Amino acid sequence: MVEDSLRTALSLAKNDEVTHFAQDKFSSLPRSDQRRWAEVYLRGLLLGRGRKSVRRIAEEVLELPVSQSLQQFINQSPWDWREVRSRIAGEVEELLSPRAWVIADTTIPKRGEHSVGVERRFVPSEGRAINCQLGTGLFLAGEAASIPVNWRIQLTRRWIDDERRRNRAYIPDSVEALPEWRYALDLVEEVGEWGVPRAPVVGDLRHTAGAHRLMARLAELGADFVFEVPDSFEVVPGPHLAAVRSGFGPQRGPNLVRARDCLRGADIKHRQVVTWAPGVDGKHRATQAVSVPVRLPVDPGRRGGPALQLVGTSRQGGRVKLWLTNRTDLRAAEVISLGALVDRTACDLLDLRAHYGLLDFEGRSYRGWHHHMTLVSAAYTFAKRSAVPGRRERQLS
Fold first, then answer.
1. What is the pTM of this model?
2. Residue 393: its H or E element
């Protein structure tokens, strides 16, 4: 009866772009009923108003009491989200011609403690501790938009070591509690396996433990990166500051200097006024920048890791911003422009949270969380198809 109602309801929907998009992106789902439920959920995320709960999606899209079946599709149905994400990534790459792969975290506030991955965490952007899940996404980013194509949920040892808690959330045996930087690395490695053309990995690592390990591992993989770092981040200085003097603050090891102090040692030849591509408000930016060569400290006792470029800039009345990149050939303006894509992604995350159901998953399972986030990515990809300039021209060419 439910299946008959579902077929009837979807047959009444227009054979529109949503249908064609769903048929393509969910073609890897092995059963026809799974593909139909995926289309229903996609339409609900796109068309539903207010909170995108399973019940509201069922009522607003189908106008049928089928929320239990839709809930089962999200939380229990064993379809592989990786295949769907791979197809989404291919679409987004063609749509945006991305300049960067942006790594960004997002908090998902929760009541209670039973939803997978929930912890009470201090959130720097909020300036307080909140009860939440912490998701890490990889966004393919261009000037017009950034779209998430892969996700990880960060799990602590409390979730992995507690067998009862783990079983309740259906966390697979292969899933471990990882350091924060490893989630970002896993995302990059997996998207690379999908055949998406490489772009510099970009992100804000000011509050990421183990940031130096992430950079070292990406360098080993041959991946380019541009990361914002805190001014206390320690580097091995280049020739411009070969002799470390006492005036440059505390040191750990024979030749480590804080990033902000390393820039203080730069002379006039390292300073320039730069202009870079517009940000999310469409305005071009200009500021004075300092660019100096440094190396990454990898392990205690080693002289230094990969060769990097440290770029610093400050705006009048604003904070100093510092980026590290292993693209030592890039002009400072290009480094800053790539780093600014973090702001582009932050705006898109706000949009995802407000209008596409990113915060609205009601289940408790690991599988359900990944299914929901995959469908959120699909909905945002569809929404941006008509919003990105030049899409129609690219399709016709």
1. 0.89
2. helix 391-396
Euclidean distance between CA atoms 81 and 394, whole angstroms: 28
SS3 309: strand
Give the pLDDT score at 265.
63
Residues 6+ apart with CB under 8 A from 201: 100, 101, 102, 103, 184, 188, 218, 223, 224, 225, 226, 227
Residues 6 or more apart whose Cβ sits within 8 Å of residue 238: 292, 293, 294, 295
What's the token pair of residue 231? 């001014």
Q: Are strands 128-141 and 307-314 parallel, antiparallel or unpaired?
A: unpaired
Contact 350, 256 (CB under 8 A): no
Write the pLDDT tens digit of every residue in 163-218.
999 999 999 999 999 999 999 999 999 999 999 999 999 999 999 999 999 999 99
Round the average pLDDT of the chain to a whole number and report it: 85
- 55-to-1, 59, 258, 268, 274 alpha-carbon distances in Å: 18, 6, 53, 63, 52
Structure confidence by residue, pLDDT tens digits, 243-284: 444 444 444 445 788 888 887 766 545 555 565 555 666 666
Phi, psi dihedrals of residue 278, rounded to the nearest 5°: -65, 150
Diameter of the chain by CA atoms? 79
Q: What CA–CA distance (Å, rounded) separates 26 from 30?
A: 9
